[in-house]
Amino acid sequence: MKSFMMRGTKILATGSAVPDSSLSNHKMSEIVQTSDEWIFTRTGIKERRLLTGVNQSVADLAILASRKALDKISMNPQDIDLIILATSSPNDLFGSASQIQCKLGAINAVAFDLTAACSGFILGIVTASQFLQNGSYRNILVIGADVLSKWIDWSDRSTCILFGDAAGAAILQSCSKEDNSILEFQLNTDGNYSNHLSISYQEEINPHPILNLYQGSFKYVVMNGKEVYKFAVSQVPLSILKCLKSLNISVGDIDWLLLHQANERILKAVAEKLSISSSKIIANLSKYGNTSAASIPLALDEALQDKKISHNDIIVVSGFGAGLTWGTIIMQWKSY
Ligand code: UT7
């Protein structure tokens, strides 16, 4: 626990949402040259959900997930002080969080987007907990939501098989230090490798004839899968160990390992490196693929619905991805 903490953070409720439309590996093999066998053995993914239809955006999924979380505790949206939307696929480059604020009727909340790709929810929770622990705000809605299907090159089999669309939300509240759930965190970025995973802005060849100004547009997800894999398997265990060390607890104290759902092989390799039993891994990527910022809150919400997690369980939560950015939060789950 950070010594300068004045108050604690508790997680009151979670919610999640996925689109109805599902795309199986078999169907995928009609779109690109691949097979169910290749995808499943390399990633553990069987199917993913895609946000189809006209005028559907990340905001729609985020609102659905948020409403479910609010409904669970019958919270009035007007009691929310801050909304943090972690997304890399907004429907407005100025941010989508304000659309969510408006549609939820959270009229007293300030709202902003946070861009940190697959680590976005981790960064969102850590950011929110600063406001809660220093007493600035009482209730914060943190959402991780992405619709990377809109940013995928559907002819690139090395990326299109991986991603799915989803949203997950958590309502955090300021509490006494004794009830604090966010015990420790550890965050990192290494921009040297930002080119390993990006949706880069590409300029047109010719500038504006008078202004010498180059305009352009964002293209598709481009990833060096092998390098991202190696980075995740080497850095995530180190981040977890640092976190455990500063809390002065051991690997044996961990009840659940909740990692960004990128690839089942990564989840298993991280657990193995730390000698954590595979029975402690929370995984749902076979059904949803890699849902970027949504993957952690979606898996957390599902694990809670399945009643896997008990009061006072220690959950190690790690995110990793574009940036490259990665980080860990150690939570002690409190049931209310
Ligand atoms: O959320 C952000 C974090 N992202 C990640 O964590 C992704 C991490 N990386 C990975 O999960 C893996 O690297 C992948 C699943 C993306 C790829 O697995 P891999 O074992 O690293 O495969 P590879 O890229 O080395 O490709 C092996 C072979 C290649 O063929 P050759 O060159 O050996 O003939 C690829 O062309 O597999 C081929 N390949 C495919 N074959 C069938 C690549 N994609 C496919 C595909 N279906 N979808």
From TrEMBL:
GO terms for molecular function: 3-oxoacyl-[acyl-carrier-protein] synthase activity; beta-ketoacyl-acyl-carrier-protein synthase III activity. GO terms for biological process: fatty acid biosynthetic process. Residues 245-333 form the Beta-ketoacyl-[acyl-carrier-protein] synthase III C-terminal domain. Residues 112-191 form the Beta-ketoacyl-[acyl-carrier-protein] synthase III N-terminal domain. Keywords: Acyltransferase, Chloroplast, Fatty acid biosynthesis, Fatty acid metabolism, Lipid biosynthesis, Lipid metabolism, Multifunctional enzyme, Plastid, Transferase. InterPro entries: ACP_syn_III_C (IPR013747), ACP_syn_III_N (IPR013751), FabH (IPR004655), Thiolase-like (IPR016039). Its EC number is 2.3.1.180. It catalyses: malonyl-[ACP] + acetyl-CoA + H(+) = 3-oxobutanoyl-[ACP] + CO2 + CoA. Pathway: Lipid metabolism; fatty acid biosynthesis. GO terms for cellular component: chloroplast. It holds the Pfam family ACP_syn_III_C. It comes from the Eukaryota. The last Arg residue of the ACP-binding site is essential for the weak association between ACP/AcpP and FabH. Catalyzes the condensation reaction of fatty acid synthesis by the addition to an acyl acceptor of two carbons from malonyl-ACP. KAS III catalyzes the first condensation reaction which initiates fatty acid synthesis and may therefore play a role in governing the total rate of fatty acid production. Possesses both acetoacetyl-ACP synthase and acetyl transacylase activities. Catalyzes the condensation reaction of fatty acid synthesis by the addition to an acyl acceptor of two carbons from malonyl-ACP. Catalyzes the first condensation reaction which initiates fatty acid synthesis and may therefore play a role in governing the total rate of fatty acid production. Possesses both acetoacetyl-ACP synthase and acetyl transacylase activities. Its substrate specificity determines the biosynthesis of branched-chain and/or straight-chain of fatty acids. This is Beta-ketoacyl-[acyl-carrier-protein] synthase III.
